[in-house]
Request: fold
Amino acid sequence: MQTEQPSSFSFTSENLDKANWHIAKYPEGRQQSAVMPLLDLAQRQNGGWIPQAAIEVIADMLDMASIRVYEVATFYTMYNLSPVGEHFVQVCTNLPCWLRGSDQVMDACKKVTGCGNGETSADGKFTVLEVECLGACVNAPMMQIGDDYYEDLDSASTEAILNALKAGETPKVGSQAGRHTCEPAGGITSLTDRYPDRAAKSGGDD
Amino acid sequence: MPKITIDGEELEVEAGMTVLQACEQAGKEVPRFCYHDRLSIAGNCRMCLVQMERSPKPVASCAMPVGDGMVVYTDTPEVKKMRQGVMEFLLINHPLDCPICDQGGECDLQDQAMAYGMDHGRYKENKRAVEDKYMGPLIKTIMTRCIHCTRCVRFSTEVAGVTDMGLIGRGENAEIVTYLDQAVSSELSANVIDLCPVGALTSKPYAFMARPWELKKTESVDVSDAQGCAIRVDSRGPEVMRVLPRLNEDVNEEWISDKARYWVDGLKRQRLDRPYVRGKNGKLAPATWNEAFAAIAKATKGVSGSEMAAIAGDMADCESMLALKDLMTALGSANIDCRQDGSKVDPTVRASYTFNSTIAGIEDADALLIVGANPRWEAAVLNARIRKRHLMGKFPIAAIGPAIDLSYPVDWLGEGADVLAEIANGSHPFAEVLKTAEKPMIIVGSGAAARPDGASVLGLARQIAEASGAVSGDWNGFNVLQRAASRVGGLDLGFAPGEGGLDTAGILDGVTSGSIKVLYLLGADEIASKDLDKPFVIYQGHHGDAGAHVADVILPGAAYTEKDATYVNLEGRVQRGQLAVFPPGEAREDWKIVRALSDVLGQTLPYSTLAEVRQGLVKANPVFQGIDDIQAAEWGEFGATGGVSGAFTYPVANFYMTDPISRASATMAECTDEILGGGEGKTGTDG
Reply:
């Protein structure tokens, strides 16, 4: 666990309402099932990581032992138990993304933020992390920043996104190559009469 | 009942069994690491794989319930190969450090690798290394050896009822930890050492002390409390190296408390290894046996029987108590008592001082009232049985006394004895709960029975038991939770005031007033009196504790590991302990000392062999005939009808230090410091 811990944690009244809404979803005696959404709420409220105090607060709320909450929090990689930067950059480096150039994405991250894998920038703005498959292989390579996916990346687009975030702007989410969701890279090859503007130029199968 | 075919052999098994249990019933050995009879099923080690017809994949037999018509194979070449594969995976990260591992020689992984291991490893990569964890003064951790069977986590959560341990992380990063690196706060914590199938959790006090094959194993019974847990004493030469639990389904299943396991280093300290006589200068000086006996003969000369008294302590064995009782009777004294705590239980009604429901009977009960007892500290293994019953469900538990954590939820009715009176007269709602229950149980603490109004407390408890139908047919729900190994045995053989004799309180009054001139303490160290310097005190025991400090003559006796002796546990079960090592120095077995003394005093006792003493025991009370048996005690009138008042308190202030052996034990002192927080307020200079 992170050595420097805040001494206490409490949910904001808004988050407390959300927490109670989650807890109420489960039948009497099964309140412990709400442990994962509550950990997520705590992480969001606390700037992207879960302090030990929050684990104990949640354990108390759900009437379970702290160690059981801690087990859940350590099992799932999407819970952070130590502080992360304002923008939490997770770059997929699994096979499809790697074949499509995730190394260049990592290099671009290093160039803009100065962070290698697992590091947080000095200004506290970025944390960069290599992660396992995030399930957007069709648009590889990709990265997740906060809750948003950025897909079809290359060095230039990655740098542009990170620079925009650095400047406080909001970059465009999704495919950076201009395609609509995960349609074929060259444009659609069916239903072309309905969406003529998204049809493939040559009509071949991409 | 489903029929199942195992290796071509058809057998009928109980529904709800697992395939592994069925295989065991068929006499087939199935290797396993994570599966344990008394714990929930995890199914994560995969070592118990078997082949099953119509199943495309091997099946983890520990987690597969039996079904009718299953055809299972446990001995095919395929099964062997599967298990070899599992073993190879387990050994990827397990270090090959058996020569420096304390588990070596009694390691499940080592043993099973003999059958399923490969002769070489194919894995060239680095093994993972895991930081060792702190788990208190008893459990040593070498976490790199852990194979993540989670037996320790399941034991501490399910049996011990403490939520300190857990498995964090996942996959290759999984680790067993205690929350925030705290010591495991259970009186049963060291059982995880036995449960650990590898050398990840080993015994800290026993670290690098001995190898299992160089130890002499002696089956015996524990005397650290009144449960009489089955133990195995492992010794090397004159030294007791360690104590391990032994299976006894009726008493301790396969657990023992940390005190029973780790107080043995106290057997090497503060020992009385030669007789002492207090000289003219008021100091105790070493003496020979003859000199010690002569001093006693001189002091008792001309003292009448009514001016002599004897008190037996908490760990006295039945043979020595019988010998002392017979000697005192021969000397004309009826002032004998084995209730050194002043308990008001009735020596004439056996049901008034035993745990009549029996320990295994707890599992049949359906409501429980605890009166002024802390079973977690007074009988830790029995407490685990109550927790086990609680986990089965539909078991309301209420208690009278200061609220404490008993490891299961308890309805605390109040601290005062007045609540007991309310339940007795039926005005308290819990009286109704007991009444509607089919097999209600009442546990009266030994501390509650030792109060000045203890007789009334017992009377009220009897009233509740009778009113709620706790005593009917072959069920007797009235229980006294004794905490001294000698107590039930002493009362059974009649080490209690005879006609016109004084009980402990009377004897101590006599000591103060000067009417008792000679006091014989048989291992009695917890005597609440400041005037013990007044009479001539003979102390017979094995440790230089409170009793020896006030003694005029010290007769060195044997500790429980050093004699063949009979004990009766709190249920009334007669059990035999065995000699594992010889008493140190000139110390002798206790009954022999009394026998030798009787000769000097001219009242020679009519037995000279152990067999003859044991015949004497049977003559004193036929219950001593049935070894390992319980003879149900007959119900009768006992207790008083007076009023009770005041809050209950618990007699044990520190679980780890209750008697001369544990007070002399360095390990127990460490536990007191680190687990009970006795070390709070320590400064940096305390080392």
In short: Chain A has seven helices and six strands. Chain A touches chain B through ten residues (CB under 8 Å).
